[in-house]
Design brief:
CATH superfamily of the largest domain: Glycogen Phosphorylase B
Number of strands: 15
Strand order of the largest sheet: 3-2-1-4-5-6-7
CATH topology of the largest domain: Rossmann fold
CATH class of the largest domain: Alpha Beta
CATH architecture of the largest domain: 3-Layer(aba) Sandwich
Number of domains: 2
Structural class: alpha/beta
Distance between the termini: 9 Å
Shape: globular
Radius of gyration: 23 Å
Largest sheet: 7 strands, parallel
C-alpha cells in the first residue's frame, strides 16, 4: 500500500539492551524523532515492564515486546559462520566490495531467516525505515536483514567504540558511529563503504556536556562521603566476563601495593563496579575507610542494566574529578580522556596469570585496545610493581600522556558537544525519508 501523502514518517526501532536505552532514550531520542516528523514503534524486551514503557511513552510512540534471547537462536549457524569467516578473509585482503556482494548474495539471505518471527509486526507497521540501535546486539541482525529483504530502508548504530573490531551481525544501508577511528575500523575490518558511514559522536556521553550536570569537586565528595582535599583514585572494574573468571585479583594487588607504598594524601579509592561485576566478590574491601563503592543500580527485566540520566551524570563527575583513573578494560579507559584525566591500564591478574595474560593479548590488546596500544595513548602496567609508580607519576604530573588523551578525544570519541543523540535521531529520520522516497518511486 502506498503511504498517504503528508502522513508522518514511520520508524521501527529495536532496543534490546538496557544500556542502549540509557544511552539514547534517556537523552530524548524519541522526542527528537517526533519533532522531526516521525512516529516511532519500539521493539524491545522492556515493552513488558511498565516502568520502562511509562518512562518513554509519549503521543506518537508505540511499544511491542520481543525477546532478546530469540535473537541468538540462529536458524543456520553453520552457514552464518562460514559466510563470516570468508567475509573476514576478504576484508583482510582489501576486497571490501566483494565482501559486500557476498553478504547480499548469501549472508543476508541466511540471516534474514532469523527475523522471520517478527515478519508480521514489520508488515503491520509498514515502516519507512528500520533502525537497529545496537548493530552488534542480539536483535539487530535478523530483523535488519529481513527488513532489507522486504525493501525497507535500514540504519544501524554501532554502539560502542570497540565494536568495529568484532564481527557485525548485519549490514544496513547506512551506519552511524562515534568517530573517524571507528569508521576506519568498519571499512577495514567490515568491508563497509565509507559513504555508508556517518560519524555522529557517542550518545552515551551527551549528559557529560550538560552544564546542569557539572558538579564541583565538593559536590561530588559530599554525595559520596569523600574528602575533597585528598587524591581520588577511580578504579573501574572489567566485569565478571566468565562464570569462573576472577576479576578481584588485580584490585587486590593494587590495594596491597597502595598499603605498602603509603602515597601522600593519603589517596581515597572509588571502586566503580562494572554492571557485570558481582558485588560480594569485593566484600573484603567494604569496611575500609579509604574505599567507596559505586555502580549503576537501575535494572530493566530482560534488558540487563538500564542507566538513568542521573546515574550517567554521577559517572561523568567521577571522571571529571578523579585524579587518576585505573581500569583493566572498562569503557572508563577512554571516557577519562574527555576530562583529560590520566589513565592507567593494569594488564595482569596474579590470581589467574596465564588465563588473564592470554585474554588480554588476544582480545584486549588486539581488538578492544587496538587503537589505544597502536597510538600509545594510555599507560599499560604489566605487573603489580608497576602500578603505584605509575599512579605516583600521574598524581605529580597531570600532563603525562596528555597527547595520547588528545588522540582518544579526536579519533576515538568523535564530536564532544552533547548533541550525538540529536544526530542519531536525524540519521534515523533521514533514513525514513529515503525509504519513503524509494517506496514512492517503486509505486
Amino acid at each position: 500500500m502506498k503511504p498517504e501523502v503528508g502522513s508522518r514518517l514511520r520508524l521501527l526501532i529495536e532496543i534490546a539492551d538496557g544500556r542502549v536505552a540509557g544511552a539514547t532514550l534517556e537523552n530524548g531520542f524519541l522526542d527528537r524523532c517526533l519533532e522531526l516528523g516521525a512516529e516511532v514503534h519500539v521493539l524491545s524486551p522492556g515493552a513488558c515492564f511498565e516502568p520502562f514503557v511509562e518512562r518513554y511513552r509519549v503521543s506518537g510512540t508505540r511499544f511491542s515486546y520481543v525477546s532478546a534471547d530469540s535473537g541468538y537462536a540462529a536458524r543456520f549457524p553453520r552457514l552464518i559462520s562460514y559466510e563470516a569467516r570468508l567475509g573476514r578473509w576478504l576484508c583482510r585482503h582489501g576486497l571490501g566490495r566483494v565482501r559486500r556482494g557476498l553478504w547480499q548474495s548469501l549472508g543476508e539471505r541466511v540471516t534474514a531467516a532469523d527475523g522471520a518471527p517478527w515478519s508480521r509486526i514489520v508488515d503491520e507497521t509498514r515502516p519507512d525505515c528500520f533502525v537497529s540501535m545496537d548493530l552488534n546486539g542480539p536483535l539487530g541482525g535478523g530483523l535488519l536483514a529481513m527488513c532489507r529483504r522486504k525493501g525497507i530502508a535500514t540504519v544501524g548504530n554501532v554502539f560502542s567504540w570497540d565494536h568495529p573490531y568484532y564481527q557485525q551481525r548485519s549490514r544496513p544501508d547506512h551506519l552511524t558511529c562515534w568517530s573517524p577511528a571507528m569508521r576506519g575500523g568498519l571499512v577495514e575490518m567490515g568491508g563497509f563503504s565509507p559513504r555508508q558511514i556517518e560519524v555522529i559522536g557517542a550518545p552515551v556521553f551527551d549528559p557529560y556536556f550538560d552544564p546542569a550536570g557539572a558538579w564541583t569537586r565538593e559536590d561530588l565528595c559530599g554525595r559520596l562521603g569523600l574528602d575533597p582535599a585528598r587524591p581520588i583514585l577511580l578504579y573501574a572494574t572489567l566485569g565478571q566476563i566468565r562464570m569462573f573468571w576472577d576479576e578481584t585479583g588485580t584490585f587486590r594487588a593494587f590495594m596491597a601495593a597502595l598499603d605498602r607504598e603509603k602515597l601522600p594524601g593519603p589517596p581515597q579509592v572509588v571502586l566503580r563496579l562494572h554492571p557485570r561485576s558481582i558485588d560480594h566478590y569485593f566484600d573484603d574491601f567494604r569496611f575500609r575507610d579509604d574505599v567507596v563503592f559505586s555502580r549503576y543500580t537501575r535494572y530493566c527485566p530482560g534488558m540487563r542494566w538500564w542507566p538513568s540520566r542521573d546515574e550517567v551524570v554521577l559517572a561523568g563527575n567521577l571522571l571529571r574529578h578523579a585524579d587518576v583513573c585505573i581500569s583493566p578494560g572498562s569503557t572508563f579507559t577512554v571516557e577519562a580522556a574527555i576530562f583529560d584525566t590520566p589513565t592507567i591500564v593494569p594488564t595482569f591478574n596474579p590470581l589467574i596469570p596465564e588465563e588473564y595474560g592470554r585474554m588480554f593479548h588476544e582480545d584486549w590488546l588486539r581488538k578492544h585496545f587496538r587503537f589505544l596500544v597502536q597510538e600509545d595513548t594510555v599507560c599499560l602496567a604489566r605487573a603489580a610493581e608497576d602500578l603505584v609508580p605509575a599512579v605516583r607519576r600521574a598524581l605529580s604530573d597531570r600532563s603525562w600522556l596528555a597527547e595520547g588523551r588528545r588522540k582518544i578525544r579526536e579519533n576515538v570519541l568523535g564530536p564532544l558537544d552533547g548533541k550525538a543523540t540529536q544526530r542519531l535521531a536525524s540519521a534515523a529520520v533521514e533514513g525514513a525519508r529515503r525509504g519513503r522516497a524509494r517506496r514512492s518511486e517503486r509505486h
